[in-house]
Amino acid sequence: MLEHAKDRLHELQGHMQTVGLDIALLTDESTIAYYAGFWGYLSVEFGRPTFLIVPADGDPTVVTPLMESEMVSAMTWIPDVRTWEDSGHNRWENVLAGIFGTLPPRLGVEKKVLPGLVRNWLESASDSVEITDASPLISNMRTVKSPFEIEIMKQAGRVAAAMMSAAQESLAEGVPEYEAALAVINAGTRAAAEFLTAKGWEQFVSPMIHNLQIMQSGMDTSMVHRRASVKKLQAGDPVYFCFCNMAQFKQYKLGFDRMFNISHVSTQAADVQQAAIDAQQAALGAVRPGVAAEAVAEAANEVYRDRGYSPSYRTGRSIGMAYLETPELKSGDRTILQAGMTFAVDGGISVDGQYGGRIGDSIVVTAEGFEYLTEYPREVVVIRS
């Protein structure tokens, strides 16, 4: 992993030289993981930023809170790790000022994800610095995944399949939603652990599946992002699982959604679910190199319109170390698909206050079309007692 991160950073430096960018100041967790090989668990949400400073020519520097520095130093390939403290002369602002001296003429940042407290410091530190958005350089590098990355994402897919299998096996009349969510966490954690060792860099990779489970049942399946509750499943309930915030491994994050039905399924619920499946499959049928991203979305939208539903806002999104990368499978995105791009491709319908129909898979674009990263049946499923 670390050699790949090192190679990526050197490639980034070459792109920076091409566009005349002096230094990049990177703060996004997924970007730092991509280039430096480490991530933290308490970040800027607590007012505690971590920085990766990348000069166009020369060695990079990591700046991290003192309490995180031991783990960071053990995880990253970068030798120069500086620390800051919450109070006194060694606050992060002073550490950055000591590193930079005078800010360079052209400083690159990821503008959309730059924390406000860092932006404020940059604006107060210099009147002459030109703050440039480095996001396009980084996004272009992350759009097409390497074979090494795709293999990790396939492992994440196998973890996700174990999670979904446990979810399905947990379902029955009278079972509370949270019990199914617990089964997902346990199965995913055990599956992830099978891919890990307690040696080298991997010893810092936690197998634990976490985050609040997106799950709903019955009429609540029209509420796309409701979380598992104490509600007990009833006969006739459709049940929806979304693992988009949970199906991840070694920082690579997938999209993966399925629905099940308890004991029996109504004609209306089955129709909605089948329409979502058909829309997803139509979109996947359009996936291949040379096709525009928006054409994939349009293939799904044709199914929605034919079935009497509104077109979807988005049929898919690029996936990788961030939950949302570029491009997106939606109207207006004319990016041409290439082999090695990875997407979460969804079919989704909500009938407010009634039912929802959803399915989602992660895929990689191949020279011939696509390959699934997530494998699980794609059909209307009834759980019989």
Domain count: 2
The strand order across the widest sheet is 4-3-2-1-5-6
The CATH superfamily of the largest domain is identified as Creatinase/methionine aminopeptidase superfamily
Report, as a whole number of angstroms, the end-to-end distance.
45 Å
- What are the secondary-structure elements, in order, as H or E? HEHEEHEHEHEHHHEEEEEHHEEEEEE
Fraction of residues in β-strands: 15-25%
Major beta sheet, specifics? 6 strands, mixed
Overall 3D geometry?
globular
Low-confidence stretches: none
Mean pLDDT: 93
Which structural class best describes the helix and strand composition? alpha+beta
CATH class of the largest domain: Alpha Beta
The CATH topology of the largest domain is given as: Creatine Amidinohydrolase
Describe this structure in words.
The structure is a single chain. This protein is 35% helix and 21% strand. β5 (106-109), α5 (116-125) and β6 (130-133) form a beta-alpha-beta unit. With 385 residues, it is α+β, with helices and mostly antiparallel strands. α7 packs antiparallel against α8 (177-193) and α9 runs antiparallel to α10 (293-306). It is built from ten helices and 17 strands. The radius of gyration is 23 Å and the shape is globular. The protein folds into two domains: 2-142, 3-Layer(aba) Sandwich (Creatine Amidinohydrolase, Chain A, domain 1); 144-383, Creatinase/methionine aminopeptidase superfamily (Creatine Amidinohydrolase, Alpha-Beta Complex), CATH 3.90.230.10. The chain has helices spanning 2-19, 29-36, 69-75, 92-100, 116-125, 135-143, 147-170, 177-193, 267-285, 293-306, and strands at 23-26, 51-55, 61-65, 81-84, 106-109, 130-133, 214-217, 238-242, 248-249, 252-253, 257-262, 316-318, 325-329, 342-351, 355-365, 370-372, 382-383. The protein has a six-stranded mixed sheet with strand order 4-3-2-1-5-6, with helices on both faces.
